[in-house]
Fold this protein.
Amino acid sequence: MTKIAFIFPGQGSQQVGMGAEFVQNDVNSKTFYDKADDVLGFSLSKLMLEGPQEELTLTYNAQPALLTTGVMVAAKLKEAGIVPDFTAGHSLGEYSALVASNSISFEDAVQIVHKRGLYMDEAVPAGQGAMAAILGMPADALKEVTDKVTNEGDVVQIANLNCPGQIVISGTKAGVEKACVEAKQAGAKRAIPLVVSGPFHSELMRAASEKLGDALKNIEISQPDIPVIGNVWAKEIEDVSAIQHELVEQVYSPVQWENSVRYMIEQGVTTFIECGPGKVLSGLVKKIDRSVSTYCVFDETSLNEVIEALRGE
């Protein structure tokens, strides 16, 4: 029997026009975009559908935009009779997973991720933080590099353990630059600076996590109907208090994406469906285990492809 996981992308996957075909052709899909506008008090949907890309990419816009599209796509899949056995999301995507698993309401999630983006944006002034992807270096060797640079006075740490051979580091601009040089000297194949607005998943985000913790106390969180695999511990987060701790800690802790995917595969998942724009997570899953099936759903054509493929299994 096919076991399915819905996976939800994080920041970086946003693009102008995301979800447009569903919204234009389906009243139920449009409802998600309308609700997001109502909750936030501004036209997020216009920004998502018309841009400009620069404004959509701002952290506090990108986060609710990606959540809205991902949740809407998950709802379309469920309408088609495709129900996941697990859900998981990369960083911000974890909120989409919690909504899809009926742990947090869509309205609360839109509001909280918008605040999360604002808190992250406030935590470190633009230009002071940075992130970079390090390719072809084991995690333990890279950690030695980041620990050395941090101990010398420039904070930098591992932020995302994405797949074999791809790890992201995060910290101060100087710390990331030094770690990139030292990582290449220590054997890394490449060090690629990322175009991001802050040092996400680093200790520099602790101030944001504290504000987020206070905001989370004001929303209702329920035990998920469908198991959600958390970023911090790469296993199921089952009770309400664990979910609250997870969402606070993941702001400054590494995203354990590779271990999360491996855990789901160990539980029997054979099919991963990426809900939303882009194919980043699907690509990572394939690098982790080429034997599993991956699909990306972002329009009617891709939705129908998944429906046909699963019908034939």
Q: What stands out?
A: The CA atoms of residues 140 and 146 lie 10 Å apart. The mean pLDDT is 96.
